[in-house]
Design brief:
The structure is a homodimer. Chain A folds into two domains: 46 residues, Homeodomain-like (Arc Repressor Mutant, subunit A); 167 residues, Tetracycline Repressor, domain 2 (Orthogonal Bundle). Chain A contains nine helices and no strands. In chain A, helix 5 runs antiparallel to helix 7 and helix 5 packs antiparallel against helix 9. The radius of gyration of chain A is 20 Å and the shape is elongated. The termini of chain A are far apart. Chains A and B meet through helix 6, helix 8 and helix 9 of A and helix 6, helix 8 and helix 9 of B. The structure holds a DNA duplex.
DNA sequence: ACAAGTTTCAAACACATGTTTTAATTCTAT
DNA sequence: ATAGAATTAAAACATGTGTTTGAAACTTGT
């Protein structure tokens, strides 16, 4: 049973992109390693850019599905939901996906870091469109889990994403479960502390206490209106 | 007064590298934008790779100096030192440096993310050699600040670095002070919570209580023996 | 078995890249 | 002012890039 050239392309490209970056990886290298013809990329995908997007789309779809599924379970399990479970629903699929890809551990996440650093408009739009949907769900869930909504919830979640992405890219083949537990604990403490701080501020200065939810618009959480 | 071509090169290259990546940025683009001759890069630096390293070296030196200076102050101020001040010494210079570069805010940090994602051995060695030295100092400081050393201190610091890097790359021209305060609070809570957890584990299972410091070797904290 | 549609292949194309070379220019110290 | 060094300039070089092309090989439905 031979796997289709398209799959071979996606797999090989993902691996090479993660290791060397998008621009540094050539189509000749990809096709040679995948043992397909050079023209295969342009035939099946149309262009190298389209390849990049396709490589991403595949993993993002997967990741989002798993995250939202776990989030759903967390929300069904108790009301208000457990903050720990919410964050775990966010963290665990990413770590697992990263570890599952055999060989190099942080491959997928290094790919994520690259994509994020990249200024490629097309790629960015694909990612953030998919990401924003999920992030909104998680932000709402966190709001339910905490007695007080932190003033800068968006920023806090960015912290979590950053910690997750970076530590994954760093971690070799380390224990996924342990890392997940560690990170969830770390972030829960941070979020709770921040919520506490918000309460303290709002009681000493009541004028600040109302616009807590306006801080959710920028960055990842915003939708592309077009 | 005209600034030297070398400086013009470093400045322009830094800007373009951050926006487009190392490979995507061409020497022709850099030299055109810097208004110097194409051959200037090879004359002054020797090669494009050397340019990349040079761009980095300059900022890293600066960043390390500021961080260690603030850390020194924090250690002198009180004994045991304040965890908040230690983390602030780590976070603040980076945020400030990122904001100071006029125009685009997260430029330098996006550069960092790229460099980190990059698999360039030469660049990696330069960075981690410089980084490891500083990280060791901070890890030791944190050990003094906490009543109990968390079992996975290295990982915790990676979380901090990740949160810092990512949120910086994300943040436009936002309020540096506010972000710094937020992040420090976030990470302090995480670290304290983790320390608490370590205590709990070590009392229920005393066999684990001794090798707390062995977890400091891998990743950023390790030195290159060569 | 055969024709029509897919997919693979090797070669070529047009162009952009980092680097080198050689000459002109500017700087610097005597 | 002038010789010698350092820097800038313009052009060319060799190589590698993504993409296109047109024919061959394969697959599929009848």
């Amino acid at each position: 049973m031979k796997e289709s050239t398209l799959l071979k392309l996606l797999d090989t490209a993902e691996l090479l992109f993660a290791d060397q970056g998008f621009h540094a990886t050539t189509l000749r290298q990809i096709t040679r390693e995948a043992e397909v013809n050079l023209a295969a990329v342009n035939y099946h995908l149309g262009s190298k850019d389209a390849l990049i997007v396709a490589v991403f789309q595949r993993r993002m779809d997967d990741l989002n599905k798993q995250r939202l599924s776990l989030l759903g379970e967390a929300l069904k399990a108790s009301q208000p939901p457990s903050l720990e479970r919410i964050l775990e629903a966010f963290v665990h699929p990413a770590l697992q996906m990263s570890a599952r890809s055999s060989g190099d551990g942080g491959r997928f996440m290094r790919l994520m870091m690259r994509a994020w650093a990249e200024n490629n408009t097309r790629l960015h739009r694909v990612i953030s469109r998919q990401y924003s949907h999920v992030m909104r769900s998680f932000a709402n869930a966190v709001k339910q889990a905490l007695p007080v909504v932190p003033a800068d919830l968006r920023q806090q979640l960015d912290f979590l994403i950053g910690a997750l992405t970076y530590s994954m890219a760093e971690t070799e083949d380390s224990d996924v479960e342990q890392t997940a537990r560690s990170l969830v604990r770390f972030a829960c403490a941070g979020l709770r502390q921040s919520a506490q701080q918000t309460v303290k501020n709002s009681t000493t200065d009541p004028s600040e206490s109302e616009h807590q939810d306006q801080s959710l618009t920028p960055s990842l959480l915003q939708e592309n209106p077009a």
